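FORM 7B: Structural annotation worksheet

SECTION A. Query
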Amino acid sequence: MELSVVIPCYNEEESIRELHKRVSAVCHTAPVSSYEIVLINDGSRDQTHEIMRELVKTDPHLVIVDLSRNHGHQLALTAGLFHAQGDYVLVLDADLQDPPELLLPMLERTRAGIDVVYGKRDQRAGETLFKRISASLFYRLLSYLSDTHIPRDVGDFRLMSRRVVEEFKNMPEQHRFVRGMIAWVGFRQEAFSYQRAPRFAGETKYPFHKLLAFAFDAISSFSIKPLRVSLLFAGFGVCLAGLMALYAIYAHFSDRSLVTGWASLATIIAFFASLQLICIGVIGEYIGRTYIQVKNRPLFIIREVLRGSA
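SECTION B. Predicted structure
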């Protein structure tokens, strides 16, 4: 198999037929001897799986990986990468915001010796101002915290060589940030600039609370700097406590009453109590993720795999 296209799908009944049509068209014209389209049904609650079963009956290039429940986008993508057999593997979202037609120029670059050609968004059409600002802040914060260089304004849309996929499959993380894991693998990686289109249909599958969880997965997977923030808080607290002690000594010898400062003192105590709780919460998140990881449960569970027939 020369080319695999991996597409996680969750509640995409409105776009799945158009997705299949466009991806099939570009794969048919691509200069490859063989290809497969791997669709992962991530526990969809609409008619996505039923439509997939209809399509697989008429398309010999189609592979359907049906997960036992909703595992989340990153684990569904992982399941697809485990089943992809191609020498080159294209990762694509089901909403058609990342044009599948870009496969052809990206394929030229991988054949020139680039192991990962990742799509870099020049524009984010159809997204709100809040989404653009929050995404920008997230990537810049991640870049600052992470010890691994993770490109900014880059999603999971990318074309990879087989050796990158094989190295990725050796990584056992439960909480996954796939684009960061691919960046960590290394080899020759190159950006491919493009303009991102609006969603073809439906609504985003990443509401705000899921974006927050995704952001923390990304940061905690590639940095322990949040744990070190508690040391900064401790240092700041020691300095402030020292200043307050000096003021208390001065007030004692100058016969000034300290009772008038009870409000500021109570505020300071509440402030540092809050910082302590934040630090404990961050540490607890890391410990909890370690606990989940050492259980060594399967990353995903598959109900069935269907392969197309002519």
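SECTION C. Observations
The chain has a mean pLDDT of 78. The longest strand covers residues 116-124.

SECTION D. Sign-off
Analyst initials: ____
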